[in-house]
Protein backbone atom coordinates (compact mmCIF):
# COMPACT_ATOMS: atom_id res chain seq x y z
CA UNK A 1 0.00 0.00 0.00
CA UNK A 2 1.33 3.47 -0.96
CA UNK A 3 2.24 5.91 1.80
CA UNK A 4 -0.45 8.46 2.65
CA UNK A 5 1.73 11.43 1.57
CA UNK A 6 2.39 9.91 -1.84
CA UNK A 7 -1.29 9.19 -2.31
CA UNK A 8 -2.06 12.86 -1.60
CA UNK A 9 0.49 13.99 -4.18
CA UNK A 10 -0.89 11.62 -6.79
CA UNK A 11 -4.42 12.79 -6.06
CA UNK A 12 -3.38 16.44 -6.41
CA UNK A 13 -1.59 15.73 -9.71
CA UNK A 14 -4.65 13.87 -10.98
CA UNK A 15 -6.96 16.76 -10.06
CA UNK A 16 -4.60 19.24 -11.78
CA UNK A 17 -4.48 17.10 -14.93
CA UNK A 18 -8.26 16.78 -14.95
CA UNK A 19 -8.83 20.54 -14.61
CA UNK A 20 -6.07 21.59 -17.01
CA UNK A 21 -7.49 23.02 -20.22
CA UNK A 22 -7.06 20.76 -23.25
CA UNK A 23 -5.82 22.35 -26.48
CA UNK A 24 -7.09 20.66 -29.65
CA UNK A 25 -4.96 19.63 -32.58
CA UNK A 26 -4.95 22.04 -35.56
CA UNK A 27 -6.60 24.81 -33.59
CA UNK A 28 -5.92 28.39 -32.58
CA UNK A 29 -6.77 29.60 -29.06
CA UNK A 30 -6.73 33.14 -27.69
CA UNK A 31 -6.20 34.04 -24.04
CA UNK A 32 -6.54 37.24 -22.08
CA UNK A 33 -5.65 37.86 -18.41
CA UNK A 34 -9.29 37.19 -17.54
CA UNK A 35 -9.50 33.87 -19.44
CA UNK A 36 -6.15 32.42 -18.38
CA UNK A 37 -6.62 29.26 -16.28
CA UNK A 38 -5.11 28.85 -12.83
CA UNK A 39 -2.53 27.42 -12.89
CA UNK A 40 -1.69 28.80 -16.38
CA UNK A 41 -1.03 25.44 -18.03
CA UNK A 42 -2.61 23.52 -20.92
CA UNK A 43 -2.70 19.89 -21.96
CA UNK A 44 -1.38 19.22 -25.47
CA UNK A 45 -2.68 16.51 -27.82
CA UNK A 46 -0.53 13.59 -28.92
CA UNK A 47 1.27 13.76 -32.26
CA UNK A 48 4.44 12.42 -33.84
CA UNK A 49 5.18 15.93 -35.13
CA UNK A 50 3.53 18.37 -32.72
CA UNK A 51 4.02 22.07 -33.51
CA UNK A 52 3.18 24.51 -30.71
CA UNK A 53 3.38 28.21 -31.57
CA UNK A 54 2.67 31.30 -29.49
CA UNK A 55 2.12 34.95 -30.38
CA UNK A 56 1.95 37.81 -27.91
CA UNK A 57 -0.93 40.14 -28.77
CA UNK A 58 -0.50 43.04 -26.32
CA UNK A 59 2.28 44.96 -24.63
CA UNK A 60 5.60 45.86 -26.23
CA UNK A 61 9.15 44.61 -26.46
CA UNK A 62 10.28 47.00 -23.73
CA UNK A 63 7.97 45.39 -21.18
CA UNK A 64 8.44 42.01 -19.54
CA UNK A 65 6.85 39.49 -21.91
CA UNK A 66 5.45 36.11 -20.81
CA UNK A 67 7.65 33.04 -20.92
CA UNK A 68 6.34 29.82 -22.43
CA UNK A 69 7.52 26.31 -21.54
CA UNK A 70 6.54 23.01 -23.11
CA UNK A 71 7.19 19.38 -22.22
CA UNK A 72 6.41 16.17 -24.08
CA UNK A 73 6.73 14.19 -20.85
CA UNK A 74 3.36 14.06 -19.07
CA UNK A 75 5.02 12.94 -15.83
CA UNK A 76 6.73 16.33 -15.46
CA UNK A 77 3.59 18.09 -14.30
CA UNK A 78 3.85 21.81 -15.04
CA UNK A 79 7.03 22.78 -16.93
CA UNK A 80 8.72 26.05 -16.04
CA UNK A 81 11.89 28.07 -15.64
CA UNK A 82 13.13 25.58 -13.05
CA UNK A 83 14.06 23.36 -15.99
CA UNK A 84 14.11 19.60 -15.89
CA UNK A 85 14.29 16.70 -18.27
CA UNK A 86 12.29 17.21 -21.48
CA UNK A 87 11.36 20.80 -20.59
CA UNK A 88 11.84 23.29 -23.41
CA UNK A 89 11.39 27.07 -23.43
CA UNK A 90 9.72 28.63 -26.48
CA UNK A 91 11.92 31.65 -27.12
CA UNK A 92 10.20 34.68 -28.62
CA UNK A 93 11.32 36.66 -31.66
CA UNK A 94 9.45 39.98 -31.82
CA UNK A 95 6.68 38.33 -29.78
CA UNK A 96 6.43 35.10 -31.78
CA UNK A 97 7.91 31.65 -31.11
CA UNK A 98 7.32 27.98 -31.77
CA UNK A 99 8.42 24.47 -30.80
CA UNK A 100 8.14 21.29 -32.84
CA UNK A 101 8.83 17.80 -31.54
CA UNK A 102 7.63 14.31 -30.76
CA UNK A 103 4.70 14.09 -28.35
CA UNK A 104 3.44 10.51 -28.62
CA UNK A 105 1.59 10.77 -25.31
CA UNK A 106 0.73 14.45 -25.48
CA UNK A 107 2.37 17.12 -23.39
CA UNK A 108 1.92 20.27 -21.35
CA UNK A 109 2.32 23.97 -22.18
CA UNK A 110 2.76 26.39 -19.29
CA UNK A 111 3.03 30.18 -19.06
CA UNK A 112 5.07 32.23 -16.62
CA UNK A 113 4.91 35.98 -16.03
CA UNK A 114 1.67 36.30 -18.02
CA UNK A 115 0.67 39.46 -16.18
CA UNK A 116 -1.88 41.50 -18.14
CA UNK A 117 -0.73 40.21 -21.53
CA UNK A 118 -3.00 38.65 -24.14
CA UNK A 119 -1.62 35.92 -26.39
CA UNK A 120 -2.51 33.18 -28.87
CA UNK A 121 -1.52 29.53 -28.90
CA UNK A 122 -1.55 27.44 -32.07
CA UNK A 123 -1.34 23.64 -32.03
CA UNK A 124 -0.81 21.74 -35.26
CA UNK A 125 0.64 18.58 -36.80
CA UNK A 126 1.39 20.32 -40.13
CA UNK A 127 3.88 22.95 -38.99
CA UNK A 128 3.64 26.07 -36.80
CA UNK A 129 0.45 28.11 -37.23
CA UNK A 130 2.33 31.28 -36.25
CA UNK A 131 5.30 32.19 -38.44
CA UNK A 132 7.48 35.01 -39.67
CA UNK A 133 7.50 34.42 -43.43
CA UNK A 134 10.82 34.65 -45.24
CA UNK A 135 9.40 36.30 -48.38
CA UNK A 136 8.61 40.00 -47.88
CA UNK A 137 5.78 41.97 -49.48
CA UNK A 138 6.56 43.80 -52.73
CA UNK A 139 6.25 47.51 -53.51
CA UNK A 140 4.78 48.38 -56.88
CA UNK A 141 5.16 52.15 -56.72
CA UNK A 142 3.91 55.29 -55.01
CA UNK A 143 2.53 58.68 -55.97
CA UNK A 144 2.12 61.72 -53.76
CA UNK A 145 -0.92 60.19 -52.04
CA UNK A 146 -1.21 56.61 -53.24
CA UNK A 147 0.61 53.29 -53.51
CA UNK A 148 0.42 49.81 -55.04
CA UNK A 149 1.67 46.94 -52.89
CA UNK A 150 1.71 43.16 -53.25
CA UNK A 151 1.64 40.24 -50.86
CA UNK A 152 4.23 37.47 -51.10
CA UNK A 153 3.30 34.88 -53.77
CA UNK A 154 0.68 32.40 -52.56
CA UNK A 155 0.29 30.14 -55.62
CA UNK A 156 2.62 29.26 -58.51
CA UNK A 157 2.19 30.71 -61.98
CA UNK A 158 0.83 28.36 -64.69
CA UNK A 159 3.65 26.71 -66.60
CA UNK A 160 2.07 25.22 -69.68
CA UNK A 161 4.51 25.05 -72.57
CA UNK A 162 3.01 24.72 -76.09
CA UNK A 163 4.09 21.69 -78.10
CA UNK A 164 4.57 20.88 -81.75
CA UNK A 165 2.68 20.60 -84.10
CA UNK A 166 0.01 22.79 -82.46
CA UNK A 167 2.50 25.35 -81.20
CA UNK A 168 0.36 28.37 -80.31
CA UNK A 169 1.41 31.39 -78.25
CA UNK A 170 -0.77 33.68 -76.11
CA UNK A 171 -2.53 36.52 -77.89
CA UNK A 172 -1.27 40.06 -77.55
CA UNK A 173 -4.20 41.01 -75.35
CA UNK A 174 -3.99 38.28 -72.74
CA UNK A 175 -7.09 36.97 -71.03
CA UNK A 176 -6.57 37.09 -67.26
CA UNK A 177 -6.44 33.52 -65.92
CA UNK A 178 -8.88 32.45 -63.25
CA UNK A 179 -7.21 33.10 -59.89
CA UNK A 180 -6.81 30.22 -57.46
CA UNK A 181 -8.29 30.29 -53.99
CA UNK A 182 -6.46 32.97 -52.03
CA UNK A 183 -5.47 33.02 -48.37
CA UNK A 184 -6.85 35.79 -46.20
CA UNK A 185 -4.33 38.63 -46.58
CA UNK A 186 -4.35 41.87 -44.55
CA UNK A 187 -2.11 44.85 -45.31
CA UNK A 188 -0.91 47.01 -42.43
CA UNK A 189 0.61 50.35 -43.45
CA UNK A 190 1.85 52.88 -40.94
CA UNK A 191 4.16 55.93 -40.96
CA UNK A 192 7.70 54.80 -40.21
CA UNK A 193 7.85 57.47 -37.50
CA UNK A 194 5.43 55.33 -35.48
CA UNK A 195 8.23 52.73 -35.06
CA UNK A 196 5.91 49.91 -36.08
CA UNK A 197 8.84 47.62 -36.95
CA UNK A 198 10.36 48.13 -33.50
CA UNK A 199 7.36 46.55 -31.74
CA UNK A 200 5.69 43.16 -31.61
CA UNK A 201 5.55 41.60 -35.07
CA UNK A 202 2.69 39.19 -34.57
CA UNK A 203 -0.50 38.95 -36.58
CA UNK A 204 -2.80 39.61 -33.61
CA UNK A 205 -0.81 42.68 -32.52
CA UNK A 206 -0.45 44.19 -36.01
CA UNK A 207 -4.14 43.59 -36.78
CA UNK A 208 -5.05 45.82 -33.84
CA UNK A 209 -3.29 48.79 -35.47
CA UNK A 210 -5.26 51.21 -37.64
CA UNK A 211 -3.73 50.99 -41.11
CA UNK A 212 -2.94 54.26 -42.88
CA UNK A 213 -4.66 55.39 -46.06
CA UNK A 214 -7.79 54.21 -47.81
CA UNK A 215 -7.84 50.70 -49.28
CA UNK A 216 -9.38 51.28 -52.69
CA UNK A 217 -9.10 47.69 -53.91
CA UNK A 218 -7.60 44.30 -53.09
CA UNK A 219 -7.44 41.75 -55.90
CA UNK A 220 -5.45 38.60 -56.73
CA UNK A 221 -2.95 39.33 -59.49
CA UNK A 222 -0.52 37.20 -61.52
CA UNK A 223 2.19 39.82 -61.81
CA UNK A 224 5.05 37.64 -63.09
CA UNK A 225 6.50 34.14 -62.98
CA UNK A 226 6.94 34.40 -59.20
CA UNK A 227 3.26 33.49 -58.93
CA UNK A 228 -0.08 34.84 -57.73
CA UNK A 229 -0.09 37.70 -55.24
CA UNK A 230 -2.71 39.84 -53.54
CA UNK A 231 -2.55 43.39 -54.94
CA UNK A 232 -3.60 46.49 -52.97
CA UNK A 233 -4.33 49.94 -54.35
CA UNK A 234 -4.09 52.44 -51.51
CA UNK A 235 -5.14 56.10 -51.52
CA UNK A 236 -5.35 59.04 -49.10
CA UNK A 237 -1.71 58.83 -48.01
CA UNK A 238 0.38 61.83 -47.00
CA UNK A 239 2.92 63.16 -49.49
CA UNK A 240 6.68 62.86 -48.88
CA UNK A 241 6.14 60.48 -45.96
CA UNK A 242 8.00 57.30 -45.09
CA UNK A 243 5.78 54.27 -44.45
CA UNK A 244 6.33 50.78 -43.07
CA UNK A 245 4.29 47.87 -44.44
CA UNK A 246 3.48 44.40 -43.12
CA UNK A 247 1.24 41.73 -44.64
CA UNK A 248 -0.62 39.25 -42.42
CA UNK A 249 -1.60 35.89 -43.91
CA UNK A 250 -4.53 34.00 -42.36
CA UNK A 251 -4.29 36.10 -39.18
CA UNK A 252 -1.15 34.34 -37.89
CA UNK A 253 1.67 34.50 -40.47
CA UNK A 254 3.56 37.79 -40.80
CA UNK A 255 5.51 39.03 -43.82
CA UNK A 256 7.65 42.14 -43.61
CA UNK A 257 8.50 44.79 -42.85
CA UNK A 258 9.24 46.66 -46.07
CA UNK A 259 9.62 50.42 -46.39
CA UNK A 260 8.38 52.98 -48.91
CA UNK A 261 7.98 56.71 -49.28
CA UNK A 262 5.29 58.69 -51.05
CA UNK A 263 6.35 61.23 -53.67
CA UNK A 264 6.30 64.99 -53.12
CA UNK A 265 3.09 66.99 -53.50
CA UNK A 266 4.35 68.25 -56.91
CA UNK A 267 4.52 64.71 -58.36
CA UNK A 268 1.81 64.50 -61.04
CA UNK A 269 2.13 61.09 -62.72
CA UNK A 270 -0.78 58.70 -61.97
CA UNK A 271 -0.52 54.97 -61.28
CA UNK A 272 -1.21 52.35 -63.95
CA UNK A 273 -2.02 48.78 -62.90
CA UNK A 274 -3.98 45.59 -63.63
CA UNK A 275 -3.21 45.37 -67.36
CA UNK A 276 -3.63 41.74 -68.59
CA UNK A 277 -1.39 42.43 -71.60
CA UNK A 278 1.30 44.00 -69.35
CA UNK A 279 0.81 42.25 -66.00
CA UNK A 280 4.05 43.55 -64.44
CA UNK A 281 3.17 47.23 -64.97
CA UNK A 282 2.22 48.63 -61.58
CA UNK A 283 3.81 52.05 -61.34
CA UNK A 284 3.41 55.74 -62.15
CA UNK A 285 3.30 56.68 -65.85
CA UNK A 286 3.40 60.17 -67.49
CA UNK A 287 -0.27 60.50 -68.36
CA UNK A 288 -2.87 63.11 -67.56
CA UNK A 289 -4.91 62.43 -64.45
CA UNK A 290 -7.68 59.83 -64.89
CA UNK A 291 -11.19 61.09 -65.52
CA UNK A 292 -14.26 60.58 -63.31
CA UNK A 293 -12.17 60.80 -60.14
CA UNK A 294 -10.57 57.42 -60.80
CA UNK A 295 -7.54 56.99 -58.52
CA UNK A 296 -5.44 55.22 -61.18
CA UNK A 297 -5.54 53.78 -64.70
CA UNK A 298 -6.34 50.13 -65.37
CA UNK A 299 -7.20 48.11 -68.47
CA UNK A 300 -10.73 49.57 -68.55
CA UNK A 301 -9.71 53.23 -68.32
CA UNK A 302 -6.40 53.38 -70.19
CA UNK A 303 -6.75 55.32 -73.48
CA UNK A 304 -6.90 53.14 -76.60
CA UNK A 305 -4.29 55.41 -78.17
CA UNK A 306 -1.84 53.86 -75.69
CA UNK A 307 -3.01 50.25 -75.74
CA UNK A 308 -3.65 49.65 -79.45
CA UNK A 309 -0.12 50.40 -80.76
CA UNK A 310 1.37 48.18 -78.06
CA UNK A 311 -0.98 45.31 -78.91
CA UNK A 312 -0.09 45.75 -82.59
CA UNK A 313 3.62 45.55 -81.83
CA UNK A 314 3.05 42.43 -79.75
CA UNK A 315 0.94 40.77 -82.47
CA UNK A 316 3.49 41.51 -85.20
CA UNK A 317 6.35 40.18 -83.09
CA UNK A 318 4.47 36.96 -82.32
CA UNK A 319 3.67 36.46 -86.00
CA UNK A 320 7.33 36.87 -86.92
CA UNK A 321 8.46 34.55 -84.14
CA UNK A 322 6.10 31.78 -85.28
CA UNK A 323 7.74 31.71 -88.73
CA UNK A 324 10.37 29.66 -86.90
CA UNK A 325 9.48 25.98 -86.49
CA UNK A 326 8.81 26.44 -82.78
CA UNK A 327 8.66 23.19 -80.87
CA UNK A 328 10.12 21.18 -83.74
CA UNK A 329 13.48 22.88 -84.25
CA UNK A 330 15.48 23.93 -81.22
CA UNK A 331 17.51 27.13 -81.33
CA UNK A 332 18.52 26.78 -77.67
CA UNK A 333 18.66 23.98 -75.10
CA UNK A 334 17.45 26.44 -72.45
CA UNK A 335 14.97 28.77 -74.18
CA UNK A 336 11.81 28.28 -76.23
CA UNK A 337 9.63 30.49 -78.41
CA UNK A 338 7.27 30.86 -75.44
CA UNK A 339 10.16 32.12 -73.30
CA UNK A 340 11.10 34.55 -76.06
CA UNK A 341 7.58 35.98 -76.26
CA UNK A 342 7.38 36.35 -72.47
CA UNK A 343 10.71 38.21 -72.33
CA UNK A 344 9.73 40.45 -75.26
CA UNK A 345 6.38 41.29 -73.66
CA UNK A 346 8.09 42.37 -70.44
CA UNK A 347 10.58 44.52 -72.35
CA UNK A 348 7.90 46.04 -74.60
CA UNK A 349 5.74 46.96 -71.60
CA UNK A 350 8.72 48.40 -69.74
CA UNK A 351 9.72 50.72 -72.59
CA UNK A 352 6.16 51.51 -73.70
CA UNK A 353 4.98 52.53 -70.23
CA UNK A 354 7.60 55.05 -69.18
CA UNK A 355 8.06 55.01 -65.42
CA UNK A 356 7.90 58.30 -63.53
CA UNK A 357 9.99 58.85 -60.45
CA UNK A 358 11.74 61.61 -58.57
CA UNK A 359 14.86 62.15 -56.50
CA UNK A 360 14.39 61.41 -52.84
CA UNK A 361 14.64 64.18 -50.23
CA UNK A 362 17.92 62.64 -49.06
CA UNK A 363 19.73 62.99 -52.40
CA UNK A 364 19.48 65.41 -55.29
CA UNK A 365 19.70 62.64 -57.88
CA UNK A 366 18.57 59.51 -56.09
CA UNK A 367 15.32 57.59 -55.64
CA UNK A 368 16.45 56.25 -52.28
CA UNK A 369 13.41 55.91 -50.04
CA UNK A 370 15.19 55.15 -46.80
CA UNK A 371 15.26 57.50 -43.88
CA UNK A 372 18.24 59.79 -43.46
CA UNK A 373 20.84 57.77 -45.42
CA UNK A 374 21.59 58.95 -48.98
CA UNK A 375 21.36 56.14 -51.49
CA UNK A 376 24.45 54.81 -53.22
CA UNK A 377 24.53 54.25 -56.14
CA UNK A 378 22.35 56.94 -57.70
CA UNK A 379 19.31 55.77 -59.65
CA UNK A 380 18.91 55.93 -63.44
CA UNK A 381 16.88 59.14 -63.55
CA UNK A 382 16.36 61.27 -66.67
CA UNK A 383 14.55 64.65 -66.30
CA UNK A 384 11.78 65.37 -68.79
CA UNK A 385 10.72 69.02 -69.23
CA UNK A 386 7.09 69.96 -69.92
CA UNK A 387 5.84 68.88 -73.37
CA UNK A 388 9.07 67.03 -74.12
CA UNK A 389 8.84 64.10 -76.51
CA UNK A 390 8.56 60.97 -74.39
CA UNK A 391 10.16 57.66 -75.31
CA UNK A 392 6.66 56.49 -76.18
CA UNK A 393 5.04 59.10 -78.42
CA UNK A 394 1.60 57.56 -77.75
CA UNK A 395 1.63 58.72 -74.14
CA UNK A 396 -0.34 61.92 -73.73
CA UNK A 397 2.28 63.32 -71.40
CA UNK A 398 2.25 64.59 -67.86
CA UNK A 399 0.73 67.93 -66.94
CA UNK A 400 4.06 69.12 -65.52
CA UNK A 401 7.76 68.24 -65.78
CA UNK A 402 8.64 64.77 -64.58
CA UNK A 403 11.62 62.50 -64.22
CA UNK A 404 11.90 59.15 -66.02
CA UNK A 405 13.27 56.10 -64.25
CA UNK A 406 15.02 54.28 -67.11
CA UNK A 407 14.40 50.57 -67.73
CA UNK A 408 17.02 48.13 -66.45
CA UNK A 409 19.35 47.07 -69.26
CA UNK A 410 18.85 43.48 -68.13
CA UNK A 411 15.22 43.66 -69.31
CA UNK A 412 16.58 44.12 -72.82
CA UNK A 413 19.34 41.53 -72.61
CA UNK A 414 16.82 38.96 -71.36
CA UNK A 415 15.08 39.22 -74.77
CA UNK A 416 18.38 38.91 -76.61
CA UNK A 417 19.16 35.71 -74.67
CA UNK A 418 15.70 34.17 -75.01
CA UNK A 419 14.95 34.77 -78.71
CA UNK A 420 16.28 33.12 -81.89
CA UNK A 421 18.96 35.05 -83.73
CA UNK A 422 16.89 35.59 -86.90
CA UNK A 423 14.66 37.98 -84.92
CA UNK A 424 17.57 40.41 -84.98
CA UNK A 425 16.84 41.81 -81.52
CA UNK A 426 19.84 43.78 -80.24
CA UNK A 427 20.52 45.81 -77.11
CA UNK A 428 22.79 48.85 -76.84
CA UNK A 429 26.36 48.18 -75.78
CA UNK A 430 27.56 49.54 -72.46
CA UNK A 431 30.57 51.34 -73.92
CA UNK A 432 28.46 52.94 -76.65
CA UNK A 433 25.92 55.05 -74.74
CA UNK A 434 23.63 52.29 -73.39
CA UNK A 435 23.19 54.43 -70.27
CA UNK A 436 21.37 57.11 -72.26
CA UNK A 437 18.31 54.88 -72.62
CA UNK A 438 18.75 52.17 -69.96
CA UNK A 439 19.79 51.86 -66.36
CA UNK A 440 23.24 50.23 -66.59
CA UNK A 441 25.32 48.57 -63.90
CA UNK A 442 22.68 48.16 -61.21
CA UNK A 443 21.84 44.46 -61.50
CA UNK A 444 24.71 43.16 -63.64
CA UNK A 445 28.12 44.76 -63.85
CA UNK A 446 28.21 47.72 -66.22
CA UNK A 447 31.73 46.69 -67.19
CA UNK A 448 31.48 43.08 -68.26
CA UNK A 449 27.89 42.02 -67.55
CA UNK A 450 28.73 39.42 -64.92
CA UNK A 451 25.63 38.56 -62.90
CA UNK A 452 25.73 39.90 -59.35
CA UNK A 453 28.55 42.34 -60.02
CA UNK A 454 26.27 45.35 -60.36
CA UNK A 455 26.33 48.23 -57.92
CA UNK A 456 23.02 47.21 -56.33
CA UNK A 457 22.55 43.62 -57.50
CA UNK A 458 18.81 44.17 -57.89
CA UNK A 459 16.32 46.63 -59.37
CA UNK A 460 14.83 47.47 -55.97
CA UNK A 461 15.06 46.35 -52.35
CA UNK A 462 12.97 46.11 -49.18
CA UNK A 463 14.08 49.57 -48.05
CA UNK A 464 12.30 51.31 -50.94
CA UNK A 465 15.41 51.90 -53.04
CA UNK A 466 14.57 51.69 -56.76
CA UNK A 467 17.51 51.98 -59.15
CA UNK A 468 15.98 51.15 -62.53
CA UNK A 469 12.65 49.95 -63.87
CA UNK A 470 12.81 46.18 -63.71
CA UNK A 471 9.06 45.65 -64.08
Automatic annotation (TrEMBL):
User: For the region Disordered, what residue ranges are annotated?
Assistant: 360-398
Keyword tags? Signal
Q: Which residue stretches does the UniProt record annotate as biased composition, category Polar residues?
A: 373-398
Q: Identify a single GO molecular function assigned to this protein.
A: calcium channel activity
Pfam families for this protein: Mid1 (PF12929)
Stretch forming the signal peptide: 1-17
**Bias (Low complexity) ranges:** 360-372
- Which superkingdom is the protein from? Eukaryota
Q: Does the keyword NADP apply?
A: no
Query: One GO biological process from the UniProt record?
Result: calcium ion import across plasma membrane
What is the name listed in the Swiss-Prot or TrEMBL entry for this protein? FZ domain-containing protein
| Organism annotation | Piloderma croceum (strain F 1598)
